[in-house]
Amino acid sequence: MEKKRENVVRGGEGPDGKRDCCIFIKEQMLITVENAQHLSWKGKKLLLEFLVGVKDSCQFLMRNPFLSGLLQTNDKVALKEITRQLQLENVVGDKVFGSFAENLAFLLEALRRGNRTSSCPVLFVLDEFDLFVHHKNQSLLYNLFDISQSAQTPVTVIGLTCRQDILELLEKRVKSRFSHRQIYLMNSFDFKEYIKIFKKQLSLPAEFPDEAFAQKWNNNVQHLSEDKTVRDVLQKLFQHTKDLRSLHLLLMLAVSAVTTHHPLPTAADLQEASRQHSSDSRANIVHGLSVLEICLIIAMKHLNEVYDGEPFNFQMVYNEFQKFIQRKAHSMYNFEKPVVMKLELVKPLERPSARAQREYLLMKLLLDSSQIMEALQVYPNCPTDVKQWAASSLSWL
């Protein structure tokens, strides 16, 4: 077996370099035994489709089991899907597997049959690779990586993920069987090219039935691309992410404002689309809370500031809430603890047991201080003293 390599192909090398690297990986699988690969960032599936579609001089019929972490939520379901895609149902017959280990042992034995020259190469593709990492004991990953080092069956495992820290999530025994070959797919175009993409995506094609309207529409798009307000919106999105799916979503929101009475998109439409696109879903939840729940959120905010983000329990939150009530002496905010405990905008650090008291479970607030303050600015009819409490310094506690 060829000595393991540690190659990293980054976005600066261009699409041709990435494709050549993928073709090399495929050729190595066909003529020798390779280890697992890892693709991250944008364009993963497009590059993978190119890789699988390349015609080889080798006369092998390569099989490509495709698994998704969103669908195969545990190793047992993943093994059944692998068995189906490798067309091993007839081999299985009516055989009933008593355990996951027995099912896995059968599958691995089927893959090990034959030798390097007669066995059919198998390319395993694991989409949403980071979700497979969270399977129990990472058994599937360990065994797939392990069999890829076998000298009997040519096997390659390619994982697709958007997480750059994926290697840190692998167990030591799994990481030791990984080839450490990673391909980073990053968009390398600049803002001028981004504007060209914007115009191309928004323009109507030449074969559009109404030529007069298409001409009018495309002239408007050209005008928008030169408008300073529109460029500021695009610059903000470009600096946040170069992912073209975000641009498509922005354009979809802007175009959805087009009607028979408003036939052409305007700079104001793009501004509103940008506001909707960048809106904070968690902060929006605050707008639907009661004054009591707002007070509890503010109490959690102050606890985060005092204890530097350390987890807290509900009793601590309730005590801070009581301090505020005593200072202001407003009976309208004085609620009993069972009523107060109904709030659900926090995340427990561990699964609560039947014996544990809810008020002493450690929790973490799912909002940061800036989100809370922004939400309070637009909260309807928020009492003044509550806003002052939220904006108060640590010395006020």
Automatic annotation (TrEMBL):
<dbReference type="InterPro" id="IPR032705">
    <property type="entry name" value="ORC4_C"/>
</dbReference>
<keyword id="KW-0235">DNA replication</keyword>
<dbReference type="Pfam" id="PF00004">
    <property type="entry name" value="AAA"/>
</dbReference>
<keyword id="KW-0539">Nucleus</keyword>
<dbReference type="GO" id="GO:0003688">
    <property type="term" value="F:DNA replication origin binding"/>
</dbReference>
<dbReference type="GO" id="GO:0005664">
    <property type="term" value="C:nuclear origin of replication recognition complex"/>
</dbReference>
<protein>
    <recommendedName>
        <fullName>Origin recognition complex subunit 4</fullName>
    </recommendedName>
</protein>
<dbReference type="Pfam" id="PF14629">
    <property type="entry name" value="ORC4_C"/>
</dbReference>
<dbReference type="GO" id="GO:0016887">
    <property type="term" value="F:ATP hydrolysis activity"/>
</dbReference>
<keyword id="KW-0238">DNA-binding</keyword>
<dbReference type="InterPro" id="IPR016527">
    <property type="entry name" value="ORC4"/>
</dbReference>
<comment type="function">
    <text>Component of the origin recognition complex (ORC) that binds origins of replication.</text>
</comment>
<feature type="domain" description="Origin recognition complex subunit 4 C-terminal">
    <location>
        <begin position="196"/>
        <end position="376"/>
    </location>
</feature>
<dbReference type="GO" id="GO:0006270">
    <property type="term" value="P:DNA replication initiation"/>
</dbReference>
<dbReference type="InterPro" id="IPR027417">
    <property type="entry name" value="P-loop_NTPase"/>
</dbReference>
<feature type="domain" description="ATPase AAA-type core">
    <location>
        <begin position="89"/>
        <end position="180"/>
    </location>
</feature>
<dbReference type="InterPro" id="IPR003959">
    <property type="entry name" value="ATPase_AAA_core"/>
</dbReference>
<dbReference type="GO" id="GO:0005524">
    <property type="term" value="F:ATP binding"/>
</dbReference>
<comment type="similarity">
    <text>Belongs to the ORC4 family.</text>
</comment>
